[in-house]
Each structure stands twice: as structure tokens, then as C-alpha cells.
Amino acid sequence: MRSQSILALGLATIAAAAPKPQTPDKPIDFVISLFETNLTCDTSTTPAKSVTGTGCQNRTLSKGGSALVRISVSSPGGFVTGYSEEGCKGEVLVVFTQTDGCTSFDDVSVKSWIGGAPFDESGK
Ligand SMILES: *[C@@H]1O[C@H](CO)[C@@H](O)[C@H](O)[C@H]1NC(C)=O
Ligand SMILES: *[C@@H]1O[C@H](CO)[C@@H](O)[C@H](O)[C@H]1NC(C)=O
User: Fold this and answer.
1) What integer is the mean pLDDT of 66-88?
2) What is the pLDDT of residue 77?
3) Is 7 helix (H, G, I), strand (E, B) or coil?
4) Which domain of life is it from (predicted)?
5) 12-36 average pLDDT score
6) Residue that wins the pLDDT comparison between 76 and 116
7) From ligand 1's centre to the CA of 36, what distance in Å?
8) Which ligand has the minimum distance to the alpha carbon of residue 39?
9) Ligand closest to the CA atom of residue 66
10) What's phi and psi for 20, nearest 5 deg?
């Protein structure tokens, strides 16, 4: 019995040290981090806000911010597309092609996000 409780304690410690899972009971297409006032995805000056879920997500990232893709489930290539209007309409402003690549938005605001690449491969 004694060795069992030591094992349980060990497992609890490992679980506490691991990064917090992203809402594991909810399906997700992607997780992106938005840095609202930093162009270089720098977490020391700007705490990141996560956007996560399935389908189109309305979340504005204004000019002067940056974003990177943490997780992409819908495409193994890591695609997440950002649009100029809510509801994933308007212009395609960004197509992320990898995870963890920081993209700066110094002259456009992105209003919505969706997992997957746009239908046209050129991204327009
Ligand atoms: C972003 O963070 C970096 C590192 O702290 C800093 O050098 C840079 O000036 C910041 N940029 C903005 C626009 O705040
Ligand atoms: C996003 O915004 C559009 C337009 O305002 C709206 O039609 C759509 O339902 C919104 N989507 C979500 C998930 O809130």
C-alpha cells in the first residue's frame, strides 16, 4: 500500500508540471495566440490571448499586433486563415503555413479566423 501511494504522488507531480491542456473535452480546429500590442509575439511585454474552437472564430487583432499558430488540427500543414471581416468574410489577410511562426500585422486588422487554407491556393 505504501508504494502505491508514493506512485500516485509521483504521477500527480508530473501532471501538475505538464502544460495546461487546452479544453480537452471540447473539439478544436486550432489554437492561435494573439499579441495585441507587440509585433514580435513577445510574451514578456504582452500576455497572449488564445483563440480556439471549431469553425470560424470572431476575434479582432488590431494593427500593431502579431499572432502565431500553436496547434492546428484541421490541416497537418498548420493552416489557419485570417479574414478582414467577421464571420470569415471579406479579404484573406493572412494564411499561416506553419505552427509557431510569428506573423506581424503592422498595417491591417484581422477580425476572424478559421482552421484550414482558403479554397484558392493563391490565398486570394
Ligand atoms: C515587442 O517586444 C519586444 C521585446 O520586448 C520589444 O523589443 C519591442 O519593442 C516590442 N514591440 C512593440 C511594438 O511593443
Ligand atoms: C461572427 O460574426 C458574424 C458576423 O457578425 C456572425 O454572423 C457569426 O455568427 C459570428 N460567429 C460566431 C461564432 O460568433
Assistant:
1) 90
2) 75
3) helix
4) Eukaryota
5) 69
6) 116
7) 11
8) 1
9) 1
10) -60, 125
